[in-house]
Amino acid sequence: MADGEINLVTGGAGFIGSHLVDHLLDAGGRVTVVDDLSTGSLANLEAAMAFAPDRVEFLEGRVSDVLPELDHSKIARTFHLAAAVGVRLVVDEPIRTIETNVHETSAVLEFARRAKVPTLIASTSEVYGKGTRTPFAEEDDVVYGPTTTTRWSYACSKAIDEYLALAHDREGLAPTVVVRFFNTVGPRQSGEYGMVLPRFVEAALEGRPIEVHGDGRQSRCFCDVRDAVPALPRLLSDAENHGRVFNLGRADLVEIGDLAQIVKARLSSESEVRFIPYAEAFEEGFEDLRVRQPDLDRIRNAIDFEPKITLAMTIDDLASSLQAGKVDR
Fold first, then answer.
1. Fewer beta carbons below 10 Å: N end or C end of the chain?
2. Global confidence as pTM
3. Active-site residue among 128, 154, 193, 278?
């Protein structure tokens, strides 16, 4: 990037966004963060502000309110990470989920058209819905449940985001990359909105029951945020990746019941592991996938992506951040 050019990070005070800000600053870049602090926190940016106060700017507000007033002339690339996140938030506040995801992404892409800058849109493995095979590959069909089941509103709203982003690239309006995150975890993450690993770690640290939803036989793959974040600028910087969708995560599966036991043992906790039916934890008719696993061939071929941080290290560092109060809420 040329001297003075700026990375725009929406949702930069959140869990993944703040780690991206740190990474961009470590690489010598300048960053403008836009965040309404609805699920993020200025505490997540304390290290960045202390490390490079002259290279990071924070603008508080909704993306759709801030970007129309932002001078785009020095923005070199945009990373859109502002979104409604977490199963709990999706079930409890579906209107907020849908409107935030679709409206704010549209605002980011309108800005990208004006600025003519490469833009990365953060999406999710939820887009695959019920899926048609495992592991999920980027060109697979997607299958959703009925509109009467709130759980699928998040997946549909993020799929619309992807359609919008890819259409902008296809029509030559702005180069875009879409990244589907699979269970990204690590320091600064909170369990407030239903994220499973921080929920387990928080409960284990406090001696409360570790609540596993369903029978615990559902399997997930967990990728440390510090492995995931460096992939984002690498994907966006190569024009060969523009107009494409990439899975981002780990490939090794862990059953959620086993994860509860791993956390309990790792933190030497006396917490009971308790199984809670989905209907009690969320809503009647809630559906969950037995297996959510990414096919990583595409991202490996593009940038030689290979996560290095072990689950044990992630649990230790997440526990330390929770004990220090350094979380996104």
1. N
2. 0.94
3. 154
The domain ranges of the chain are 6-184+224-251+293-307
- Within 10 angstroms of residue 105's Cβ, the number of other Cβ atoms is 27
| Residue 152 phi, psi dihedral angles, 5° rounding | -85, -5
207-251 pLDDT, tens digit each: 999 999 999 999 999 999 999 999 999 999 999 999 999 999 999
Element spanning 103, H or E: helix 94-115
Residue 327: pLDDT over 60: no
Are the C-beta atoms of residues 186 and 146 closer than 8 Å to each other? no
Whether 154 is catalytic is yes
With cut-offs at 50, 70 and 90, classify the pLDDT of residue 280: confident
Q: In this predicted model, what pLDDT tens digit does every residue of 24-48 receive, in sequence order?
A: 999 999 999 999 998 899 999 999 9
For 284, residues 6+ apart whose C-beta sits below 8 A from its C-beta are: none
Q: How far apart are CA 97 and CA 84, in angstroms?
A: 5
What distance lies between CA 158 and its chain's CA centroid?
Answer: 12
Q: What crossing angle do the helices spanning 196-206 and 256-266 adopt, rounded to 10°?
A: 40
Which amino acid belongs to residue 198?
Answer: P
Task: Report the C-alpha gap between 256 and 269 in whole angstroms.
Answer: 17
| Token pair recorded at residue 66 | 């801030």
Strands (E), the chain: 6-10, 30-35, 56-60, 75-80, 119-124, 176-181, 184-185, 210-213, 219-220, 223-224, 244-248, 254-255, 273-276, 291-292
Task: Please tell me the predicted confidence (pLDDT) of residue 152.
Answer: 87
Distance CA 75, CA 116 (A): 9
